[in-house]
Amino acid sequence: MQYLLDTSVYPREPEPLKELRQATAKLPNACFGTSPDAGQLMAMLLKLGNAKKTIEVGVFTGYSLLLTALAIPHDGKIMAIDRDRTTYEIGLPIIQKAGVEHKIDYIESPALPVLDNLLGEPKNEADFDFAFVDADKGNYWNYHERLMKLVKIGGIVVYDNTLWGGTVAKPEEVVPENKRELRRHAVEFNKLVSADPRVEISHASIGDGIIICRRIC
Ligand code: SAH
Ligand code: CA
């Protein structure tokens, strides 16, 4: 892992992302931040898919948000949703300095009602190229149902923390009690999405695990 980071990730991590990662490292919940190797893969997916209009569920200090903003074109747009804006304020000056704030439409709210609102207007259907879901783990399947309408066919949806520290592969009894509920959510979601004919998937064991879905119908 260290080899990978030292050789292929850190030397190519854009300066603003490095700064944001370092500013985040001082916080008590620093581990929430997307790992830079997974971030590099996400930037690659955004560029391969020519993503222009995206949704992010769960911003925290903005690492995944900033990498998205750097990867999409100048006139791209990200709808970034988080129920608590305080951590975003830490990343915002770095995002502004990077010159990409104009691409971000930040919404402070629980995410599910925002997606439901979007679906209230037919023009938003299949209007997004990419989505990243990294919050509110118990609702991943609910996000998935909505994103299958909001993201276009051929579009990408990425779900984070699908390995939940590796606990999904262990029997529940050996998992610390405070991790069991989210482990159960992850196991359930992984099973459902794996059986979903609307998407092609790749479950990548990078960071804390990401499931990459490509909508096919
Ligand atoms: N993607 C971020 C990490 C997100 S951490 C990064 O790369 O750094 C999860 C975030 O989800 C937290 O900031 C939390 O405030 C937010 N969150 C939790 N539940 C939520 C909900 N129901 N709706 C929207 N945001 C939520
Ligand atoms: Ca995460």
Number of helices: 8
Distance between the termini: 36 Å
* Unreliable residue runs: none
Number of domains: 1
Beta-strand segment tally: 7
Describe the structure concisely for a colleague.
The chain is of the alpha/beta class and 217 residues long.
Please provide a written account of the structure:
The mean pLDDT is 97. The protein has one domain: Rossmann fold, CATH 3.40.50.150. It is built from eight helices and seven strands. Helix 5 links the parallel strand 2 (77-82) and strand 3 (104-108). With 217 residues, it is α/β, with parallel strands linked by helices. A seven-stranded mixed β-sheet has the order 3-2-1-4-5-7-6, sandwiched between helices. Bound molecules: S-adenosyl-L-homocysteine and calcium ion. Residues 34, 134, 160-161 line the site of calcium ion (CA).
Question: Which features characterize this protein?
Answer:
single chain, binds calcium ion, globular, about 220 residues, binds S-adenosyl-L-homocysteine, about 40% helix, alpha/beta, Rossmann fold, 7 strands, 7-stranded mixed β-sheet
Topology diagram in text:
Elements: H1 2-9, H2 15-25, H3 36-48, E1 53-57, H4 63-71, E2 77-82, H5 86-97, E3 104-108, H6 111-119, E4 128-133, H7 140-150, E5 151-160, H8 177-194, E6 199-204, E7 210-215
Parallel strand pairs: 1-2, 1-4, 2-3, 4-5
Antiparallel strand pairs: 5-7, 6-7
Helix pairs in contact: 2-5, 3-4, 6-7
Bound molecules: S-adenosyl-L-homocysteine and calcium ion.
S-adenosyl-L-homocysteine binds at residues 32-34, 57-61, 63-64, 81-84, 87, 110-111, 134-136.
